[in-house]
Amino acid sequence: MTFTSRIDLSDHVRKQACGLLQARLSDALDLEAQAKQAHWNVKGPHFLQLHQLFDGVHDAAEDFVDTMAERITTLGHIADGRVTTTAAATTLYLYPLEAAGGEAHLKALSASIAAFGKAVRAAIDQADTIGDADTADLFTQVSRETDKQLWLLEAHLQAH
Does 11-157 carry CATH code 3.40.250.10? Predict the structure, then answer.
């Protein structure tokens, strides 16, 4: 379904861009939920620091979600943030329900955010190839923040 817009991108380009955006939107929604899963359930040493860190990852993912969904609607399409769509379309790892300790959550969340970052980087090139520089730029912005969030997570897994 599309809406009329005066944006000077062809319907074909907008449709392709929205396909890229929707795929990453589903991943970002999953990432947002995974970060909350870690936030709610982390136990052990450094609890408070990790509890707050995971909330920060959630907030970054929430920004990704909003940015991508709004770009989809700007391009005249419908952003699909339904749970059923997200569950069916996400390409991220299934978050381990049994994760409890800080290290388990750090490993699980960093694996998912790294996979998300890889998919976003691929989307930069794909958006550029189809001729939508603004969507490519959006993905570049998301990629930079994803890398930063991964760094913050992985710093806790580094040996002294």
Answer: no
The SS3 of residue 101 is strand
Q: Tally the C-alpha atoms within 13 A of residue 150's C-alpha that lie toward its C-beta.
A: 15
Q: If you search the block for the tokens 């520089």, which residue do you land on? A: 133
The answer for residues whose C-beta is within 8 angstroms of residue 146's C-beta and 6 or more apart is 60, 64, 113, 116, 117, 120
Indicate the pLDDT class of residue 5, thresholds 50, 70 and 90.
Answer: confident
Residue 130 pLDDT exceeds 90: yes
User: From residue 64, how far is each of 106, 116, 142 by CA, in Å?
Assistant: 20, 11, 6
Query: Is the model's pTM score more than 0.90?
Result: yes
Mean pLDDT confidence for 142-150: 98
